[in-house]
Amino acid sequence: MAVHMNDERLTTSSNLNPQFGSCCLKGKVSLPLLRDPPQRLRQLFEGDNEQAKEFRTNIRRYNAAFAFTSVGTSSSNTYVAGNGPYVFKFQGELRHLSGSLLPTVGETPKYAQLYFIDTTEATNIQMERNPECTQTTMLEIQELLQTHHAFHRHYKEAYEIMMEFEEQQEQQQQRQYGRRIPNVVPHLHFEGQMDRRRYNLPTGSEIAVLIPGEEDRPQGTRDIVLRLRGEGHFLERINECHPAYLPLHYVLLFPFEELGWHEGLTHSNGEGRLTQREYFAFRLFPRNSEFSTILCGGKLFQQFIVDAWAATEQNRLNYIQMNQSDLRADLHISSARNMFELFQDSMAITRFFQHPDVFGIMTANPNWREISQEALLPGQTVADRPDIVARVFELKRNALMADTKKMHFFGKSVAHVFVIEFQKRTLPHMHFLTFFANEDKIREPCQVDRIVCAEFPDEQEDPELFGMVLKHMVHGPCTRDRCLDETGQCTKRFPKSFQDQTAMDQDGYPLYRRRNDGRSFEKHGFFFNNSHVVPYNPDLTRKYDCHINIEVCASVHAVKYIHKYIYKGHDRATLRIGEEQDEIKQYLDARYIGASEAVRRLLKMTMHDEDPNVVRLHLHLPGMHRVIFNTRDDPLTVLNRGQVQRTRLKEFFRMCATDENARRLTYQEFPQHYVWKQHESTWKIRERGFAIGRLYFARPAEGERFYLRLLLTTIAGPRSFEDLRTVNGVVHGTFKDACNALSLLQDDGEWIKCLEEASIMRTGASLRNLFVVILSECNPSHPELLWQRFRPHLCDDLRHRLRQHHGLFEPSEEEEYDFGLFLIDEILREQSNRNLSLFPPMPIPTLNWSHYRGNRFINEQLQWNREDLELYVLEHEPQFNGEQRYCYDAILSSIEDESGVVFFVNAPAGTGKTFLYNIVTANVRSRGKIVICVASSRIAALLLHGGRTAHSTFKIPFEVDEYSMCTINKNSEYADVFREASLIIWDEVPMQHRHCAEAVDRSLRDIRDSNSPFGGVTVVFGGDFRQILPVIPRGSRPQIVGACLRRSTIWQHVTILNLSINMRLQNASLANREFAQWLLQVGDGSNFDDASSNMIQLHNWINIVSSIRCLIDNIYNNIDDMSLHEDQYFRDQTILSARNTDVDLINKEILQSFPSNLETFRSVDSNTVEAGADNHAAYPSEYLNSLDLSGIPLSKLDLKIRYPIILLRNLAPKQGLCNGARMVLTRFSHRVLEARLLFGPHAGEHVFIPRISLTPSSTALPFHFSRRQFPVRLAFAMTINKFQGQSVKYVGLDIRVPVFSHGQLYVALSRATSPNHISALLPQNSTVSNTVNVVYPEVLLQ
Asked: What pLDDT sits at residue 578?
């Protein structure tokens, strides 16, 4: 009986009566035990003397010295790296090869050839090739094999027969007469029932030397062809199914006549054929009554087990390859197509549950007690027993998955995916994803701390865990062959930055707590601290005593890591699919196999698993479903059977036609509620369990099948193929036409429909602005056709304009259109600094409609009415307080003296900074001088007279570094503006990366030919360093602080001007004054509960609410009364949160309370795979639709009239259509929205918003992603970062998840005009009204 570990028993058995299946299928597999080896050989296998140890060390060399056959691969062979334990691993197709029995002239004998020369000579050759071996041992093995090994006798017999025939042939030739004696080619033939009378070659085994007759041919699975002399270097390949396949090479593991597997073996009960895998699985288990030379083989065992799996798999693949006519749809388990289907299944789970919550890596520990102390034989090392490592790892893996799935170790688990891979040392490791139920989703840093730790435990309080963390969970030292890239940087970004508290950024990505506590610990001569600790879970590390990396991945940004490991497939090279090719050969050439993987596969341990079950749904066009038939069937019978055959898709249509509940579901949603009964070929209502539906993938190149799939993922309850093609009562001829009617595809027809729908709503100027947006943002392929078709609508207001302002009383149609082109060109220049000539073959204006001469950019800056500006200054200048007057005079003095001072106006919220800016600019412009006003955000720029964003004005590159320059041509008219400028005002500069200001500085020094800061022009920076700093994705505190302007070389030239008097509170109550002072303390970080804490007590006047519903009711009271919803209603209130996820949830919650009809707009999503990437990286459309990325609209956008929305892109900034602009939806159609702006100088104006293609500005997705959708999101709630620079009357703060970066809490609290108008929602079960406040004192101005 095989020796098992108790936990390996079948789940259907008990501790009292355990049953096991991996070794013998509960007794179905019964093979003769291996014979005890000769006593001397056994002593070498298990002895403790020096000779035995040397034998085991060099066992592969000894075996190769006496093997009858050689081992070769189609690619590389063994792999041994570094100073670690020995590893046998190969790539490609493994082959056993047999050469001639005599060497080629001039070559030294090898393998079987050594058996036919003098013993002493053979030993000398073997020792020359294997100097590490000892001659005594070599001679002993030679004697043992000559005495006991049956194949030695068979080869001798064949050799003698061939030599005798060759001698007769030579004699015949010498006599030169008679018939020539033919060459003799003996076979080692396997036959259970041989006719020995015919061949008269008696033998005691089932292997015989066969001298074939003329009618006989070699049989691949039964014959091994032997040749006396080789023709060139020809080697005969031995079939994997021959029972001598392994014994001929592994002569030390099979010293007697033991044969391997052959096709005639059956189960012990006579039922069913014994497979090759089952045979080897039986041999892999130790038995008390058997001395297994295989399991004692050490390094040779590694090679044997890899060889065994290679033979098993190659045999199976050969069968598939030779029977393709009968197995058209067969997918072998490691084929590229099968891996593609597994990938798609995993994508279905990710789509359904949005994103995983925990990502983990578990690596086998070869020093587990179950391995090193309980399972190894005397004298063995862990490297000698890959079977034990694989078996113990599987038990640990099962236990870990049970902890996460059944015991809900991290939280209530609703789904998981895992895959097994193997390290370079072939140790198994598991990558797994866990998806949580909604109530356990990770939203707060305290939840992260409960799951993940990234610090050393206390060495004194918990020495056991400390030792495990130091041993398993420390990254380093970093070396070239481990993790360093070409620049010498660690690819894993170690060491990490220190972090006082765990925080979560706006996308939910955690920054783990890593305190700089001064501790460091030595390991292998290197010292490590908390910055080197790989995130782990203390309880799991303690329980499993191995490397278990646990990461919280509470956003879709973890998908890159997930795709890299979970979905890349098992240990093999990348394969292409979708082409006519031999995928079996591709797989064999690309695979890598090591011993641990071979054991795992032979014992049928799963390599990939996912839960819940994914139901693959058939996808076929009408009359094109798959029909399975035998090639011998009558074609008419097959055709008739196919016409009445039920498929899952056709039965889905039937259910939708007869079942009202089914009509609420799409095809993919169907398996959640219905079960497919295979034998009945019908759907039944699901009574238990859960499953996710997944449509088979289709590529756009498949035409109608792709469009059919797109419709099936979108439309609920179709009753037939025709019903799918019906949109708004119109039956379309093709599925593609139906998709176009539903705006599910991208083409120029979209813009035609967009302009058609918009021309019904508005005329003239609004349409021209929309046309410019389409030109600049949507990249239509034929813009000239759009112009030709819609120019009457685009120019329908110009006849009157030409009459009134240009003196053309009867303008011709050509003049109207030419003037329309001129106006479109002007809008293009204003919005994007481009012109119509960049959009060929768009026509360009031919007449001179310009009302200015010279440099148009300078004229644009000088177009202000100087008299109006003077009046503005006279009216507002007397309102300055003392601080404002001082700043005002200092700035004007620098301009008048041309001294080029660089100022920074340090101004907290409410101190009148913008008021100061606008009076300064009015004063300077009234003198005919140029003032350039910019801000770091478009929303802030709207508050400045003539303000624009810094990036667009200075043409700052999107990606900046310490060497960047602005993309302004020094000799251009645009550069003249900066040469003539007298003043630059740059507001909200603390939130801009210092590299942006440095790029502008370098560029202006060059343009103005001056080495003074910014070329000698007076510059006024403004802002408050208490507010949000530059956003560095996943940046550490030192990185964020280092990006601030205060860390720039520019700062040494800055003169600081202070505004501290809060203008809003001049007539305010004492309570409001106290609140303003408290706000400054929040910004300065001077009111923490204690010096070591980052917690503050919220002000008494702030209203603390108990639920999200209460927060909504406090801020949006009477939201169900539509009569109250004037624009001012939405200007006065908002809800702020730190994270995008929470903002979306709040918006959806409020949406349900908002009356009026809901309209759903669906996006068109696409991904682009780089050239050379795997085709299996094709992502189903429904997965792309499920992506919720920062700065990108939702794929399924639900909108209602009179609904507040926020714009996500700069479409027409001068018309108020800028990123962050809030507006109210007034009308919509399928391809264009009409909205009314809420804020800024264009408040109250109506604007058009088309669907545009958006690409994430920064994403960790492993592909290039694009979404065509209306660039808007709901705006009841917004992120704190997005709202900086705006103020409202009522503010709701969702701080269940605390703020995570400097200045966020200060910004959020300072948006309201009174503390009585602030409501805050704290984490659930909070007993005190305090929250986290993150402040970096090192950036503040004292």
From this structure: 35
With respect to residue 177, please indicate whether it lies within any of the assigned structural domains: no
Residue type at 958 in one-letter notation: F
- Asked, for residue 754, whether it belongs to a domain, the answer is yes
Match 């020359």 to its residue by tokens. 128
Q: Which DSSP letter does residue 535 get? A: P
**What residue type is assigned to position 730 of the chain?**
V
pLDDT surpasses 80 at 1160: yes
Q: For the chain, give the percent of residues with pLDDT over 90.
A: 36
Q: Are 1246 and 1235 in contact (CB under 8 A)?
A: yes
Do 302 and 387 have their domain in common? no
Helical pair 783-794 and 813-832, crossing angle rounded to 10 deg: 110
| pLDDT (0 to 100) of residue 777 | 82
Which domain range does residue 1126 map to?
1070-1339
Structure tokens at 1090: 């204690």
402: nearest Cα among 602, 600, 544, 559: 544
Tell me which range, 64-73, 252-261, 1015-1024, 1159-1168, is most confidently predicted by mean pLDDT. Answer: 1015-1024
- Tens of pLDDT, residues 344-399: 788 788 888 878 889 999 999 989 999 888 888 888 888 889 999 999 999 999 99
Secondary structure, 3-state, 787-803? HHHHHHHHCCCHHHHHH
CA angle 533, 538, 540 (to 5 degrees): 115
**Could you tell me if 807 and 939 lie in one domain?**
no
Owner of token pair 């789509």: 351
- Band of residue 219 on the pLDDT scale cut at 50, 70, 90: low
Tally of domains in the chain: 6
pLDDT digits (tens, 9 = 90+) for 693-728: 998 888 777 889 889 998 998 899 999 999 999 998
Strand 1133-1137 to strand 1330-1332: parallel, antiparallel, or no bridges (unpaired)? Answer: unpaired
CA distance 1219 to 1198: 20
Is the torsion defined by CA of 243, 246, 248, 254 positive or negative? negative
pLDDT for position 827: 85
Local confidence band at 1316 (pLDDT 50, 70, 90 cut-offs): confident
Burial class (CB in 10 A: 0-12, 13-18, 19+), 374: exposed
Task: Judge whether 1249 and 1258 are in contact, CB under 8 Å.
Answer: no
**Of residues 422, 523, 511, 411, the one with CA closest to residue 473:** 523
Residue range 238-278, pLDDT digits in tens: 777 888 888 888 999 999 867 888 888 888 887 888 898 99
Residues 309 and 416 in one domain: no
Q: pTM to 2 decimals?
A: 0.76
Question: For residues 533 and 454, is the Cβ–Cβ distance under 8 A?
Answer: yes
For every residue of 608-638, DSSP letters joined together read: EEEESEEEEEP---TT-------TTS-HHHH
Q: Which of 679, 706, 733 is the last residue of a domain?
A: 706
Q: What are the beta bridge partners of residue 71?
A: 96
Give the span between the Cα atoms of 596 and 662, in whole angstroms: 48
3-state secondary structure 799-843: HHHHHHHHCCCCCCHHHHHHHHHHHHHHHHHHHHCCCHHHCCCCC
Q: Which residue has the tokens 């309201």?
A: 1312
Backbone angles phi, psi at 936, to 5 degrees: -75, -20
Question: pLDDT tier at 574 (50, 70, 90 boundaries)?
Answer: very low
34 located within any domain: no
Look-up of token digits 């499993």:
544
DSSP code of 647?
-
For the chain, what is the mean pLDDT? 83
- The CA-based angle 1066-1071-1072, given to 5 degrees, is 45
- Residues 444, 314 share a domain: no
Supply 42's token pair: 């056994």
Calculate mean pLDDT across residues 792-821: 87
Question: Does residue 1271 have a cis bond before it (omega within 30 degrees)?
Answer: no
Phi, psi angle pair for 1196, to nearest 5°:
-105, 100
Of the candidates 1235, 1238, 1340, the residue with the CA atom closest to the CA atom of residue 1286: 1238
